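Notes to self after the call with IL:
- keep both proteins in one doc
- input above output, always
- annotate only the second one for now

Protein 1:
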Amino acid sequence: MNPKQNIPTVPLARFIKHSFEILKNPLPFHHQNFEEQGDVFRLKIGFKNSVIFVRDAAFAEYVLQKNQRNYTKSKIQTEDLVKYVGKGLLTSEGDHWKKQRKLIQPAFHKKQLENLLGSIQSAIVSEYTKITPNKVIDLFPILNDLAFQTVVKSLFSSAANQEDINRLQYITEAAQKMLVKELRQPYLGWWFNLSGEIQKYIDLTQEARDILKRIVNERRASAVKEHDLLDMLLDAKYDDGTSMEEEQLIDEILILFTAGHETTSNALTFAAQLLALHPKWQEEIYKERIALMSESDDLMDLVTKSKVCQQVIEETMRLYPPAYFIDRVNIEPDTFNELHIEAGSNLLFSVYEMHRHPKLWERPNAFLPERFDEGSRKFSSQYFPFGAGPRKCIGNNFAMFEMIIAVSELVSTYKIHPDFDTIEITPLITLKPKNAFLKFEKRAL
């Protein structure tokens, strides 16, 4: 039997016919294919190339956890993204990844993160001063700056000046936009190379690397300990007692910028929009914060005991997962539930579809934070906001702590009102919000 016949196939002609819609937003196209073909289908994207799309959560769990040794990340991350951010944790594989993960993991343990909570809160409160009360504003740019500033302060304390921060943010976001163009328009790859467009962004990335090297060298020369993430990365030692080489350190910092700010700003924006549409949950978070602050002003207590706030964030990331696709390629041929996957198959797991699958979730399209009243662990086989298995996001605790502080601070200061009818999305490398127009009413003290 030809293994390709075992998986329903969407022909190349259909892909080409809908190419302009896919360029704007591929999710409706994929959803229709899932509805027509089932939870696994093959999409032909060229005469020889195809991608297997999956919204079967058990299949995802099998690939990401149970048989993860047979699966590697796709060329998108291990080659296409590498040219802009280097070979850090997100883009590396095999022994190199294992070595880096073991080295960096301690920096993201909860005890270490406790030292950063003050810097995180300070960056958040500072950015919220940009909110103009009683006026409709687009919240996303503010939260985007907030998330970037939070990563910068956690990494460098006060070592980076505002000019450097602005430039690093611009380069990080510009490189991501270029990568989206490459992925959505692969047929223009020859032009992107010939015209020098790709080289322009590679040169920009080198500028970012030079800025980071200067900051790192100034820290080394100062011999001052800030107890931030940069210190932890500089002090980290491999099993043989050596430290990270400079180029590898810069790779890891660029990965933290790329993975650490956009996903968080997206999730926070969606959370604010959902809270605007469901004011009852604003008041629940506000009451919870008042109660917790009356017992303790310790930030670690706030982030670990804000149960209602965490439920809201968990439900936000179920409906609008920032990392809405997970890609893998199998090394050896494999079989799952009688589906034959030939070696070298490109698999895309739709986290967005799995998080809204009617067989997995009650009222899947409704905002129901109460479904997480016992935490997210009971949904671990179908809920993947930070991925799953050994490659689960190393910064998941950092991100949750940051988002809890950010949402709690926002709701304690303002009542949020919507100035939009429905939440719209822009699926790029991450799932981005589109129309986060909100009005903020100052709470009476």
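Protein 2 (the one to annotate):
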Amino acid sequence: MYEIDATHDPKRKSWVESANAAGTDFPIQNLPFGRFRLSGSRDAFRIGVAVGDQVLDLRATGLIDTDDMNALMNAVPAERVQLRRKISEGLTAQSAKQATWQKALVPQSACEYTVPCRIGDYTDFYTGIHHATTVGKLFRPDNPLMPNYKWVPIGYHGRASSLVVSGTTVKRPNGQTLAPDAKAPELGPSKRLDYELELGYYIGQGNAQGSPISIDNAEAHLFGVGLFNDWSARDLQAWEYQPLGPFLAKNFSSTVAPWIVTMEALAPFRSPFTRAKDDPQPLPYLDGQRNREQGQLDILLEVLIQTARMREAGEAPIRLTHGSALDAAYWTAAQLVTHHTVNGCNLQAGDLLGSGTLSGSTEGSAGSLLELTSGGKIPIHLPNGETRTFLQDGDTLILRGWCERDGVVRIGLGEAAGTILG
């Protein structure tokens, strides 16, 4: 597990003044990685570190000699820790690097971003037990959870090519649907378009094919965490998911935040992994002392919506839900890595593991409209008089996440936003 060191010191301030502002997502204690270039530029994307409202061009500092984010992610943990310390020291107030590094800063508002790394493969898991239970009740009231759910991390292989960065518009997908009173399906646009509030876990170093990653070593293979919205066409999904699971309902688009918050930055925000006494305990290969002691990530999450009418009226987005990954996730990130490789599957730097929808245990913490509206039966009433059961054209969905604890500086995950187009 990653340890707390001087880079997490709450007294540490930066010469980048915006990084010292209360409530900023990107204080000097965070330092997430992404890929950026000046807006409108045709230059290659470069590796940047977010600090306050600025981006630090990492290659321009001389700390790295590549623009290949996957190569940086593939470094051993000790090298990543050392790089973080050098970045933090160079950005610290009164640092001798200030005079030269100021030239390597670019305002975030002047930049455009792409997915934070080259994502070769993407697997979506189903770790949100409250989501799984609520959705299961819609289809199987007497038996919402399948018998394997509490024994094995459930997942499926997703479509990496349609992953997009925050701010990218999402076109409403077409597909087959079967109306309740129809004898044959028809092709058309989804009428039950939904979002899913998730975290994405990014792989650092991979493993050789045929060589599983043990639970005690799993976190050494994780680079960091980002926000993830797995857009879902519920009507397409209902018709196609048996017997092989999601297909067109999921592969048309998924949105990621531009920033990866590293496992090093998350060190102060760890919590024990526990199971209810009545639940089955993990099989030995999914159980380890370090995972039990601090395997869970304490990340707060929220979802906001801004309709086209709200945007035209100059009205700010309003919150739909607010919850915690700590309350939602039934399996830890380390357990997902271990299970993914127990059969010999080889992960690679930049691979993405989706957490699945992270709905909390309370009504206001559901991570999808499917849950918030009881399958579309109970509309949501917005302050401006509009209602929603599922997403309409022009709706913008915004995912946000952050970590905060007493005695520790708050850090954020930025945003993962997308607007629906017809």
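Annotation: The mean pLDDT is 97. The longest strand covers residues 411-421.
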